[in-house]
Specification:
Layout lengths: L1 H8 E7 L7 E5 L14 E2 L3 H12 L12 E11 L5 E7 L4 H16 L13 E10 L1
Parallel strand pairs: 2-5, 3-6
Antiparallel strand pairs: 1-2, 4-5, 4-6
Helix pairs in contact: 2-3
Length: 138
């Protein structure tokens, strides 16, 4: 039932399609607490380059929702939809109102999915699982 709610909340904006990736990446808002966590690696880490980009965006005042450059607190959830063969069909990152940061998070999540780091636990027959991206600068 929770997945039906998610589907109706999806904002169909394509942000990223990694080379070789057969899945779409979108943004959406919603309460995803009822979606099971990924089997392991449910935390996606940002690369050094991605963290530097987030830092620069915050310092430039382009994403005040996460901080001001001196302090950054980025906590974003994401969802992954798996096909019956466990391949990734879709990735949805949380819409935080900051498209540049959402794009960075979408890229990191899409790359993790393409590399096979994101795995379903098998507890959700509909194929949806939840993970998170967290980055803090203090």
């Amino acid at each position: 039932m929770a997945c039906r709610t998610i589907s109706s909340a999806i904002v169909a904006v394509l942000f990223v399609s990694s080379p070789g990736a057969a899945h779409s990446v979108e943004t959406a808002k919603g309460n995803w607490a009822g979606i099971p966590l990924l089997a392991r690696h449910h935390m996606v880490r940002l690369s050094e380059q991605a963290m530097a980009s987030v830092d620069a965006l915050a310092k430039a005042g382009k994403c005040s929702v996460i901080g001001n450059g001196r302090q950054i607190n980025l906590d974003m959830d994401f969802l992954v939809e798996f096909a019956p063969d466990n391949s990734v069909k879709r990735v949805i990152v949380e819409d935080i109102g900051c498209p540049e940061v959402e794009r960075i998070a979408a890229t990191a999540t899409s790359q993790a999915a393409s590399k096979g780091w994101l795995k379903p636990s098998g507890e959700n027959e509909l194929g949806w699982y939840r993970g998170a991206i967290s980055y803090q600068l203090r």
